[in-house]
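Notebook entry, structure prediction.
Reason for the run: the old model in the group folder had no record of what sequence produced it. Starting over properly, with the input documented here first.
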Amino acid sequence: MLTKNRVGGRMMALAATTLGLVAATALPAAAEDQPTREQLIADCASGEGKCTFNSPEIGEAYLGESRQVSDLLYNCTTSPASQSMSWADTVGSSHSFGTSVTVGGGIEGIITASVTATYNYTWQSSHTETSAFTETVQPGEVGWISRAQLMQKISGTWQTHYDDPKWGHYYWFTDDVITGPATNGTDGKHSAVLVKSRKMTDAEKKSCSAGSTKGKVFVRSS
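New structure, fully documented this time:
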């Protein structure tokens, strides 16, 4: 168990710690003896460390960056061309230090349990969506479908407990922000699907003037 003295030691260590890592002890660990955040999260995922994600706070939902999710549709004809374009998009979650949250892994379950217990809110570490749009592309242009996923940030503190001291301590703490997909309708917002187009480049125009693409509408994988 974490004693009162060790809790006080945690606060002492907080002032001197690096990389946001805190050891629950009366004396702060030397920087070279500290684990990285990635090492702590890996131990949480494997079960070597008994971990909880404490005091989660959910941020307001926001629209993520738009990205291409379909193939490219080239119109090498002299008339507008319409074609049904299928698309698929999968958006996952990541830690503040850049590591992805693995679907079905131990970390996903810890975060889900913490958020559900605190907010009665169903957190999803990954979201996949597929559909099809009929896209109209003007002559000499290239069209595609882009999608922007509704996202959300969850901040909290990882507490890692070891049965035997590791890096010299039983407990380690580190702050983290999890960024992941939010359910449509969260905070009254929704993901967006956009039909986009642009003028062909000179090289693309040349490919439209010769060979098998001359005078045709064709699709090229992104």
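Summary: The chain has a mean pLDDT of 87.
The old model has been moved to the deprecated folder.
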